[in-house]
């Protein structure tokens, strides 16, 4: 039986929204840590950059609140009026999941439903500890959801959720690197220069890569190595290289099951070929910001091509 | 009217110390299980329902947009001989409903022979001239019926209402059973309970049996108004357990009188649609023109015999409350015998004499809107304030044809867990009857609704009612 177009779209977006909720949860977690470690006003800068990473600095400025933990953490997690908050991502994920209940297993659905109920009745994030607890719970539920999708039938439903997640993850990592790099390395400063150890650790924490970094690089914390890890090392599941690879694989598995292939596959394969050729030092010399900007634009184009290929309604 | 004098299905008339002979085991179980243990199990069931998202929305109540229906842990039990009798009555009634619909939208013999006043049908809002003359595939109209029953004594059952459009509640029958097996496994050792979990298979068989002829592997779907509908959980649950697609109107398109669904690989022909949306919203070309929910051209495809709709459009005429009072005549007319399941005595307020009687006896009667549902627009005389009674009196005088009235029955009770321990609470019962081209199937079970407030007779979930599992015993009870 062929899948409904509406179902396909809902599954893909379910994958994207869960991934986004998870990313923001990690971002908040890492920022709380950074804030705690730095002296003011560096703490404020930490929250400013968290907003920039999630593309929400302007929306937050409009609220008129100062960029301190109490306000930004609430804005990014519980603020129902802000479309990029975790609660809104979970709400969108749950709406999509509800609309395709029949394509999900009970386990996958209840993980989403539980995550949403966690937030639905919360008015305040409380202090740092409570926020960390909340974030930890959300990460638990999204991990539960991922686990449940991996135990669903290996069919196009699962593949579409994973495809949505891979496309979203690529976007999130690219933005994280772009914003943090800019912020941490003002014009004129060279990549090898003095770095704020905590700031770079924050980046690694946001993508759960602290341990991975220590395994792969022996010379301590260096910005160019962090860039290398997050952009080019496909061993790290949240690196651009890994997302690019995963997208190609998922699209070809979908093609095998559904017989549908086309522009999205070609774009994804071309991107993979480019990524495999690119070397980190060249990327930095050629301009990391430009590289990431192009990557984000291409990722959006790929997203549209996927929607066309699977006839999303 | 309170519970005093009502027949309790477990305790009989004698109270907890003198249960009905057949129910000594269950009565013992109730007595032996501490109330807080029962409470704990009940809460665990409700937590599971919330996690699964078995919720319903209450219309006009935005604060409680998503609620679960309270679940009561004490089951209601039917003995095999009781069930046997009930199910014969159900089959007879549903066969009559199908014959009636076939006749009303066809030859209209029942009108020609003067059994029912023609204007009652032809001027009824539930009568759909748009589908007159259409014969649904295999001549089945009411594929899925929910017949609401009440009980007043060991052998006294009455039909309160027929639901021949899109009766809901079957998911509760199935989920309640799942919860009971998990939470009270000991009951299933003590009793041999007929399984209900074959319902989705029976429904799918019913759907396939009415597919337009010549379609070797008919494609069946469930059509939902969408996930904001109060019964969405049930729609997805049924589609899921049958392994068919759950579609919304936007997924369907009609081309040259053939219905298709839009899939990632293009259009796929659809043969059988279990639609959970009202007639009004089926097809804007035929019914409500401003409906955004409908599928333009669906009725044309149905008229051409290219798709089966479950239930058939126009069925509202069979479960209309004004027609209800004629059901004994309808059953007699088509089956040639007396109705095995009696109606509740009903006064049709459109008839002047009946209206006079109703106005004179309002405090004793239940008055219902002919076109109301879900317990809205209803007066329960014995518990109503004098103000409510006067409001209804005025309404009855202004528009008598919109109302019927019935005596308040001494509805049976079943022991129910309350804050103060176990106490009798009034119940009703909705069994589900499936009619395919091959046969009529009655699922051994159904939805028991319970009025949780002491003495209350209103069991509707939108008015604070709860549900119970309903056991049908395979052997003799102990």
From TrEMBL, chain B:
Domain Circularly permuted ATP-grasp type: 75-451
InterPro entries registered for this protein in UniProt: ATP-dep_Glu-Cys_Ligase-2 (IPR051680), CP_ATPgrasp_2 (IPR025841), UCP005522 (IPR016450)
PANTHER family given in the database record: BLR5612 PROTEIN, SLL1039 PROTEIN
Entry protein name: Circularly permuted ATP-grasp type 2 domain-containing protein
Lineage, uppermost ranks: Bacteria, Pseudomonadati, Pseudomonadota, Alphaproteobacteria, Sphingomonadales
